[in-house]
Every structure is written in structure tokens, then in C-alpha cells.
Amino acid sequence: METILDEKDKKILQTIDTKARLSIANISRKTGIQRDSVLYRINKMKKSGVIRFFSTTLSPEKMGYPISSFVNFELYNLTKQEEKKFIAFLKGHPYVVYVAKTTGRWDTTTQIVAKNLKQFDSVISEIRMKFPRIIKDYNTASIIKEIKYDNMVDLI
Predict the structure, then answer these.
(1) Is 130 in contact with 89 (CB distance < 8 Å)?
(2) pLDDT digit string (tens) for 25-39?
(3) How far apart are CA 64 and CA 138, in angstroms?
(4) Which residues share a beta bridge with 147?
(5) Helix H segments across 67-153?
(6) Which fold would CATH assign to domain 61-142?
């Protein structure tokens, strides 16, 4: 269900989009919205799911992981139980930093980071060997340079 956002909600979201660590008092000052109202609105947007979480966007390369690739998996002979195991494995793997179910040819998209190509290959091999009965195909797309990373604030 879509949540209706008014102009005050939009001002708050635009303010915290670039500086999520601002205090409620600073958000209030920058938006011209009373402090209690800012706190109430942020809590309401968190509860409704508009704000899923506050996070820091890290640079894998700067943290010693220059290999960053999206890996798409096409699955077959899949039961609910096998799908749960597959997703749980991906979610729990330290080098898998993103997991999503997708439509189209690929059933699952992941992002894998690694220190080098040997480690990346090892992660892919580990996944393929653990789930040979359900992985029909996969492909990789390495990230050379991020050009845009957008939190959608301009769409509201």
C-alpha cells in the first residue's frame, strides 16, 4: 500500500537524504518544521516502511574489495524449502552483500565483493557446488565504475 507524503514529509526526507546523521533539532532548523513534528513524522515514516533504515554507503574498493560484481542466478527444480536454503545461504555469506528475487530470466540477483579474482571465483564455485541441483545458469556483470546511486528522494 502506498503511503501518502505531504510537503513537510518531503522536506524532511530531502534533508536527511544527504545528511542522515543530523539531529532532530538540526532537521527542524533546516526545514522550518517544529522539532516534535519532525520526530513524529520520521517515526511515522519508519513505521509505514517509507524509511526502511538509515545506512552508510561504503566503497568496497576503498575497503580492500576491488572486485564487485552482480551475479544473476537462473534456478530450476526449485521447491519452497530449497529456495529458503538458497536465500538463507546467500544472506549469510560474508562476501554476498546484496540479494534480491527478480523477474525475467534470472530468479535471483546478488552482489558479491572480493579481494581478488581468485577469491571471487571461489565464492561463485562455493555457491554452485552447494546448490548444483537448483542452479541452471548464472552470469556475472562486474562493476567498473558506479555512475549513479540514488535514494529516490527526487521522485517524491
Answers:
(1) yes
(2) 999 999 999 999 999
(3) 25
(4) none
(5) 80-92, 117-130
(6) Alpha-Beta Plaits (3.30.70)
